[in-house]
Amino acid sequence: MAQRHLDPTDPRLRPVGTAPTGEALAGYLRGQATEFLRALRLHRETGSGANGSEAAAEAARALRRSARRISASLHTFQPLLDSDWCETMRPELAWVSGTLAMEHAYTARLERLLTALHRLSGSTAFPAQVTGPDTTAGARAGDTGPRPPAAPDRGNLTVGAAKAGALLDRQLTLARTRAHSTALQALGSSRFHAVADKVAVLASEVPLLATAAATDLRPHATAAEERLTDAVTALPLVTAGNPYNAAALVHGLSPDTVPHPQDAPWHQVRLLLRLHRYAREALTGPKGNAVVDLRLLDAGQALNRHRDASEAAAAAAQAARTPRIAPATAYALGVLHADQRHEVEAARFAFQQAWQKETVGAS
Amino acid sequence: MAQRHLDPTDPRLRPVGTAPTGEALAGYLRGQATEFLRALRLHRETGSGANGSEAAAEAARALRRSARRISASLHTFQPLLDSDWCETMRPELAWVSGTLAMEHAYTARLERLLTALHRLSGSTAFPAQVTGPDTTAGARAGDTGPRPPAAPDRGNLTVGAAKAGALLDRQLTLARTRAHSTALQALGSSRFHAVADKVAVLASEVPLLATAAATDLRPHATAAEERLTDAVTALPLVTAGNPYNAAALVHGLSPDTVPHPQDAPWHQVRLLLRLHRYAREALTGPKGNAVVDLRLLDAGQALNRHRDASEAAAAAAQAARTPRIAPATAYALGVLHADQRHEVEAARFAFQQAWQKETVGAS
Questions:
Q1: In this structure, what CATH number is given to the domain that contains residue A28?
Q2: What element of type H or E holds B184?
Q3: Looking at the partner chain, which of A137, A262, A326 has a beta carbon nearest the beta carbon of B126?
Q4: Which domain holds residue B195?
Q5: How many CA within 13 A on the CB side of residue A142?
Q6: Considering the domain boundaries, does residue B175 fall inside one?
Q7: pLDDT tens digits for B28-39?
């Protein structure tokens, strides 16, 4: 696969008839630094009232996008760069993108959970009827032990779903508001201004080592890809490719499942996949985005969905631990948690399918 | 498909070089009636203390097996038989198999639910770690709103699973005990003795119409198969064949979902599939079981699993409606309900796969 992705004969990799070197990296970093500063200016112009305007949110996304790419390039191509500078810069960029990501994450998580609750509590369209010569199934389907009177009993679950939605709304809106002011404080902090200044310098001069101009970028990009493929190889892909393996909900009621430990290797692959994509961008230059492997994007989207469902499931489990909630609320949150854990399982299946396509295409 | 299953050139369908007629049906009914009486005698010998001995349970299974087959034959081949006799006999046989099925059903349902709870509350084996150049996912995975202190909080869910198991154990054991005494009363009732007497008569003389000896059984068996294929055609098989369609849990929190109305068409196909299998048995004679289509068995097993998971999910939802349960108990029951609804979805997928194989094999 490495050969396939980084074929030396690939014209994209030989912009001026030579292999991409430190110059290509410098160009990429300057471009991302400029992008960062543009987004920062935009963010300040659009201002940011509570919950942020759409333009401000877009500006924040652009800030994170460039911060992630700079951070990733410093990681993948560190041997070509001033290592002290890299080591001070990277955690700061991770702090910026991490801090700016929170508000959007809570907004998306709440939307995902309320959408799922809506789906789960819609009214049904199928007429209930069991016919045939044997009434066993009919008799048994109805007989699941003593039942309280239908009306209040039936109201119960719907009320539970509504209460669960209100509880999640309260908790995640509060978390989002906190994340919003944390982000605003961060953007106004001297720590952030120091980062912005460093990025401003980066936009004009990239701290390349003297050797960088003669150094081929591709082996470093290949190393990044190999870190990805090694991590993917360690994933339980055979299980994931077998539908309804019920693996994601295993231990769903165990004490240690918020966050769910079995998700960690998948989260890590998500990060390594992103590093691989950004390394390709650095090699292929500004047009990199246009030619990025679609299957790689599919796999990445599956892993984003995996991450989002995993955290939504954790939020539902977390809400269920709120003291003094009604049993019907807790029940609805349990159904919701399991529903999102199955989304996690579905996302792993989707990733396995996308990844298979990729390796098949490579062979 | 009809041609494939009921190929007139199939030697099994021409035991003595002729098409199977009323005589074959009579032979099959006499055999099943004898089987019924043998199982009944065995059941009386093995006695039946509370929860019944293993031998008594096996005898009850054999009683139901033959009762179902006689009832099914009366349904499929009624035109060859005395219709008044059929109309009085069939509901009685359905009552017998239905009544005897309950105790076993509650036992199996409790076992299924406790097994699922055990799987859901086991402790995990994966180390939690998220590495990589970007700490965003790490930070977010942990940050899902304010958390109460870990220890009691973590105990909570496990306690919930344990309490849920105890609650289900109480409710389903009570239901099973009731079903057991109901079955004993039924077996001692004059109504049952009347059925047993009718079956004893059937074992020696089958009320065939005069025309039956010259009537080909196969068109009636074909009609049974067509009722099955029509019902299967009406199922949402495209959705079912698409893994993780999340269809089974839709409306999982709606007021009308115990029993789940969307399951009814699948339950009905399960019954029609059984009728089709028994009709084949009647045609192919005593060796029928040996030559029954394995894919048909797979499809049938998938539908049994569908039925069992559907009723287990309903029992979990039902238990969650018990007044004054703890939120942690209700949460565990919600997770369990959703888990079983996904079993329902998985069973539909398995049925679709088995059924596809079948039609592929036929073409």
A1: 1.40.20.10
A2: helix B150-188
A3: A262
A4: 20-126+152-362
A5: 9
A6: yes
A7: 999 999 999 999
A17 against B208, higher pLDDT: B208
Chain A, 225 to 244: residues with Cβ < 8 Å from chain B are: 243-244
**pLDDT score at A287:** 58
Task: State how far the Cα of A30 lies from the Cα of B42, in Å rounded to an integer.
Answer: 87
Nearest to B271 among A134, A160, A330 (CB): A134
Q: B306 lies in a domain?
A: yes
The phi and psi torsions of B208 (rounded to 5 degrees) equal: -75, 150
Tell me how far apart the alpha carbons of residues B30 and A333 are, in angstroms, rounded to a whole number: 55
Q: Which residues of chain A have pLDDT under 70?
A: 1-17, 48-52, 123-157, 255-259, 285-292, 358-363
A265 touches chain B (CB under 8 A): yes
A101 touches chain B (CB under 8 A): yes
Q: Which residue of A has its CA nearest to B326?
A: A327
Contacts of A329 in chain B (CB under 8 A): 327
Q: What is the CA radius of gyration of chain B?
A: 25
Go through B204-238 and write b for each residue having 16 or more CB atoms within 10 A of its CB, e for each that does not. Answer: eebbbeeebeebbbbebbbebbebbbebbeebebe
DSSP state of A209: -
The verdict on A304 touching B (C-beta cutoff 8 Å) is no
Whether B6 is covered by a domain: the verdict is no
- Cβ distance A339 to B136 less than 8 Å, yes or no, reads no
What's the confidence (pLDDT) of residue A284? 84
DSSP secondary structure of B130-153: --SS--HHHHHHH-SS----HHHH
Q: What is the reported pTM?
A: 0.84
Instruction: Name the one residue in this structure whose structure tokens are 């959970």.
Output: A113
